[in-house]
Structure formats: structure tokens, C-alpha cells
């Protein structure tokens, strides 16, 4: 399952870049969002000289899979932390 609708439409690096930045907005906290935005930007700089169409498609496929994994891993954190209920008081 893709993290956001439209993953199947990503064909070019710029589309992937925009898609991954939209995925970052789904993360639970600003700190986590900024961490992954930085990672996305850094990865694009590292792979900016890639010119093999096959390798580009591999990178796109893997990046979408990784985004799916990260969102699935971190979504439960926000669900668990959000409804914080106080512990029941203990009687002496």
C-alpha cells in the first residue's frame, strides 16, 4: 500500500521529490518532518547526476517503498501518544 494517493503516477525524479515532501507532512511531529525533509533533499543531491533510466526507476520504486514503511512505522506513535490518559490513582 502506498503512503499517499498518487504514488503510482510518480515517473520522474521531480515528481518523486514533491511526492516525498508531501509524505513528510503526514509525519507526527515537526522535528520528525524536518528530519525526513532533510534526508529527502540530501538524497536528491547525492543522486542528481544519475542518468540511467533503469537506475532512476529503481530509486523511485525504493523511495516510495521506504516512505510507505516510515509512515506505517511512525503513524502508530502519534496514535499512541495523542490520547494520553492519566494513570489511575493508587490507594494506600
Automatic annotation (TrEMBL):
Complex 1 LYR protein domain span: 11-68
Enumerate the Pfam families for this protein.
Answer: Complex1_LYR (PF05347)
Read off the InterPro entries from this record: Complex1_LYR_dom, Complex1_LYR_LYRM9, Complex_I_LYR
Superkingdom as given in the UniProt entry: Eukaryota
Family according to the record: Belongs to the complex I LYR family. LYRM9 subfamily.
Name used for this protein in its record: LYR motif-containing protein 9
Q: Which gene encodes it?
A: LYRM9
Amino acid at each position: 500500500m502506498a503512503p499517499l494517493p498518487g504514488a503510482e503516477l510518480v515517473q520522474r525524479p521531480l515528481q518523486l521529490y514533491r511526492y516525498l515532501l508531501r509524505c513528510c507532512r503526514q509525519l507526527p511531529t515537526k522535528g520528525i518532518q524536518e528530519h525526513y525533509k532533510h534526508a529527502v533533499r540530501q538524497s536528491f543531491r547525492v543522486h542528481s547526476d544519475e542518468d540511467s533510466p533503469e537506475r532512476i526507476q529503481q530509486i523511485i520504486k525504493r523511495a516510495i517503498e521506504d516512505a510507505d514503511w516510515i509512515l506505517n512505522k511512525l503513524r502508530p506513535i502519534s496514535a499512541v501518544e495523542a490520547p494520553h490518559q492519566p494513570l489511575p490513582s493508587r490507594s494506600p
